[in-house]
């Protein structure tokens, strides 16, 4: 009842709520009263802050999702595009422009310059209040009260990648590199310590160092003696030379360079370079040297390996396989040639031997010889196939070979030995014609003598009874 009366009476107090400013204002007789806070104002403020945070989180999530879709995470497998690019960069490395300089030369030419920063600025940036909240001034002039972790140091550039960035020395930088003059080891003289003033441990260490130095001197002397022996220097000249000039023992690169130059000059004066192979002739050029797909180092290594006669293990096995296969085929060819000449001579009459052609020899087969020699041929071919298996286990896939079959090798021999068989038969015919001019008794004596000496003599031709009767009848008709 009182609240209704207070709202009606003009002189009573009225309380108004402003939701935008989250405060209550009390008016008495039209004048504002003191400002006060309520729980509802705190709830409204928390709700507004929560809505702002939710909006920022949604925007941040959308940004992260866009970055994930643009740059995929590493899955453990290299993509095809990256692999091709890596191989191209490894094969054709980018050319560098300008002279090649060391890091010291670059520092001496353009030393970095570092200037001290104002202590007041350092103190202001080092304070906790400045790290918690700082006013960030961007490159386009806008400022905002935000954390430094959420603000990029540089403005984003479209199409820019991290490897495109080049470090530039700041203008306020000063050089902090100091150069020292370190004396060389030769300038500081080291006197040997007095053994009497040392303890037992130091004396033992001194004896070990002395022994190690003597052993190194003996190794150096043995190495020099080996080099002198290879160069053809006699012992007398070596002793005379050592007595006149002490042996050099350089300790630095300059000392070694001087020693090498001295040796080269002495060899030139003695005339050891006058008989060098290829002296005064143009250098040999190789086709591989101009191949753009073979690097200079790879070409030199390949040439060095070829000159030394070195080869991979499968190449040695390949040479052994070729030698074994050639020997097997030669033995098989010689055996079949002798057998075919003997059988054709016995089966055909002497008058028809001169009319034998290559086509007839190609069709000739001897099953008895194949059956008798099959065991030997199979054993020999098995040795060749074992080398083939050994070769295939070491060789690359592109040069591997298949096993050899006996039937295929026999057909090859029948085809390749036809000309040799024809030549052997022609020689037999000429030898038989000359032998028939002798008397029958002398012919039989020669036959018996030849069979007793060598049963496999290819120059001896047996005379059959019908051949003897034919020759005897021909000689009788001539009378």
TrEMBL record:
It comes from the Eukaryota. Residues 259-329 form the DnaJ homologue subfamily C member 28 conserved domain. Residues 182-191, 450-459 have a biased composition (Polar residues). Residues 176-197, 437-459 are annotated as: Disordered. This is DnaJ homologue subfamily C member 28 conserved domain-containing protein.
């Amino acid at each position: 009842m009182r609240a209704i009366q207070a709202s009606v009476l003009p002189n009573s107090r009225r309380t108004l709520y402003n939701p935008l400013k989250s405060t209550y204002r009390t008016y008495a007789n039209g004048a504002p009263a003191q400002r006060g806070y309520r729980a509802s104002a705190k709830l409204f403020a928390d709700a507004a802050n929560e809505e702002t945070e939710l909006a920022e989180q949604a925007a941040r999530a959308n940004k992260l999702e866009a970055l994930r879709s643009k740059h995929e995470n590493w899955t453990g497998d290299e993509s095809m595009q990256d692999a091709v690019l890596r191989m191209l960069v490894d094969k054709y490395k980018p050319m560098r422009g300008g002279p090649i300089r060391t890091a010291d030369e670059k520092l001496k030419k353009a030393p970095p310059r570092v200037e001290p920063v104002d202590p007041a600025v350092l103190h202001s940036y080092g304070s906790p209040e400045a790290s918690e909240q700082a006013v960030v001034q961007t490159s386009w002039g806008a400022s905002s009260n935000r954390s430094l972790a959420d603000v990029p140091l540089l403005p984003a550039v479209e199409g820019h990648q991290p490897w495109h960035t080049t470090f530039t020395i700041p203008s306020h930088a000063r050089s902090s590199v100091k150069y020292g003059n370190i004396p060389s080891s030769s300038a500081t003289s080291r006197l040997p310590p007095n053994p009497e003033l040392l303890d037992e441990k130091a004396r033992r260490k001194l004896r070990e160092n002395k022994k190690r130095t003597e052993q190194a001197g003996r190794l150096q002397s043995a190495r020099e003696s080996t080099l002198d022996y290879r160069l053809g220097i006699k012992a007398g000249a070596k002793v005379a030379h050592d007595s006149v000039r002490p042996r050099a023992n350089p300790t630095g690169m300059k000392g070694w360079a001087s020693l090498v130059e001295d040796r080269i000059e002495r060899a030139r004066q003695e005339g050891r370079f006058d008989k060098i192979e290829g002296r005064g002739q143009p250098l040999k050029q190789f086709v591989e040297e101009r191949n753009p797909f073979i690097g200079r180092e790879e070409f030199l290594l390949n040439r060095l390996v070829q000159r030394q006669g070195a080869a991979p293990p499968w190449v040695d096995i390949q040479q052994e396989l070729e030698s074994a296969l050639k020997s097997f085929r030669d033995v098989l060819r010689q055996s079949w040639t002798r057998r075919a000449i003997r059988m054709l001579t016995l089966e055909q009459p002497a008058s028809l031997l001169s009319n034998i052609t290559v086509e007839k020899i190609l069709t000739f087969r001897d099953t008895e010889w194949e059956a008798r020699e099959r065991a030997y041929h199979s054993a020999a071919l098995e040795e060749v196939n074992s080398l083939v298996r050994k070769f295939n286990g070491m060789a690359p896939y592109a040069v591997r070979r298949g096993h050899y079959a006996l039937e295929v090798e026999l057909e090859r021999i029948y085809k390749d030995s036809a000309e040799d068989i024809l030549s052997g038969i022609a020689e037999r015919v000429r030898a038989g014609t000359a032998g028939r001019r002798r008397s029958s008794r002398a012919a039989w004596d020669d036959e018996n003598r030849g069979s007793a000496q060598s049963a496999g003599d290819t120059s001896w031709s047996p005379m059959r009874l019908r051949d003897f009767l034919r020759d005897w009848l021909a000689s009788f008709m001539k009378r």
